[in-house]
Amino acid sequence: MDEDPYADFANQDTQPLPNFTPGPYNALDPATGNLLRKSLNLGSYNYLGFADDWNQTCKEDVVGALGKWGVSNGGCRVEYGTTDMHRELERLVADFLGKEDSLVLNMGFNTNATTIPALVSRGDLIVSDTLNHTSIVNGARASGAAIRTFKHNNAADLEDVLREAIVLGQPRTHRPWRKIIVMVEGIYSMEGEYCNLRMVRDVCKKYKVYLYLDEAHSIGAMGATGRGCCEYAGVDTADVDVLMGTFTKSFGGMGGYIAADAKTIAYLRTKCAGSVFHNSLSPIVCQQILTSFRVIMGLDGTDVGARKLRALRDNSNYMRMRLTDMGLHVLGNYDSPIMPVMLYNPTKIAAFSRECFKRGLAVVVVGFPAVPILMSRARLCISAGHTREDLDDALVKIEEVADICKIRYGWSSFG
Ligand code: PMP
């Protein structure tokens, strides 16, 4: 018999990966590929620490749901993929945010990517912050609507773009666009900066355009009770037409939601691809979100949620203050758990990451094309699950690495 020409291809999973070089800086177990070094995680979105105390807070409910429902619903939302849990979660999200209804989908990315094309199309105009997330950009491009951008978080520039796009004072029906929708985020994930929401809201009201707010990084994490950027900025959720968010960051789950008036949500249920063509959110993930929501809202009868919110804010502000005092240039605002530490020079990216990892710190480093080439950075994500000892230990190590990489004030960034 002829030799099988595809034999190597079929067996490739038993071959070592090419260029796989376990070493001190990427200490992977060659047998399993697992990291050998235990590190303090400063790179994941685990804002409220549900990943750390999962056994105490969520496990019982989630395991119960697994026993009752299994792992998959085996259908999309409109074809038998909706359980009582999905509706319960949707009502909870709507109540939490003060909206009439909400729609829950199985992925945050797809929530933006599939609802935006259902909300706007050719003849409409999207006005988008230049630093909006790829999922918003994908949704906007797929919609067929015209897209204009405004300078990041700059309400004055937003106003200029809108003024140019419409003639101020004309009734809505005389505009060159059927619909205009402004798209912003609650906290910008590469900048650690929260949205200038009051001013953006004022401009949207003045020009009578819709406002869409992505709260992926702010829902559950910002505001006195975790209700996100609106609560934090003192903006009534009634002034934001579409609230979007994800469950990946603060809820220890995954999936996304859209909260809006009942008519918009009823329309999206049957018109948005995420609802019609995607399998629905797994029941166990649904349960994880429901349970963590109840903890955040205090519906479990404890103050664990309130303590988590306080710990996140305290940890974030402590870390930001100490990093800044150290002479590092940290982007973003106080109260934000995302801390981009500027490296500027792209040649420092690998060294910073490697030196942190050597010391048992897992950080995310970001370079071109995610950010402009001379705006390279390390992005730290702070969690309510970090203890003060964790953070103090990390600060000592970051100071050492900062000196090695010469990124403290007084050093030339290109030195
Ligand atoms: N929106 C924003 C602003 C994000 O940062 C992200 C992902 N980090 C998403 C949407 C997509 O969410 P998910 O990862 O839950 O799919």
TrEMBL record:
Pfam families: Aminotran_1_2. One of its GO terms (biological process) is sphingosine biosynthetic process. It is an enzyme of class 2 (transferase). Its cofactor is pyridoxal 5'-phosphate. Keywords: Pyridoxal phosphate, Transferase. One of its GO terms (molecular function) is serine C-palmitoyltransferase activity. InterPro entries: Aminotrans_II_pyridoxalP_BS (IPR001917), Aminotransferase_I/II_large (IPR004839), AON_synthase_class-II (IPR050087), PyrdxlP-dep_Trfase (IPR015424), PyrdxlP-dep_Trfase_major (IPR015421), PyrdxlP-dep_Trfase_small (IPR015422). Belongs to the class-II pyridoxal-phosphate-dependent aminotransferase family. PANTHER family: CLASS II AMINOTRANSFERASE/8-AMINO-7-OXONONANOATE SYNTHASE, LD36009P. This is serine C-palmitoyltransferase. It comes from Triparma retinervis.
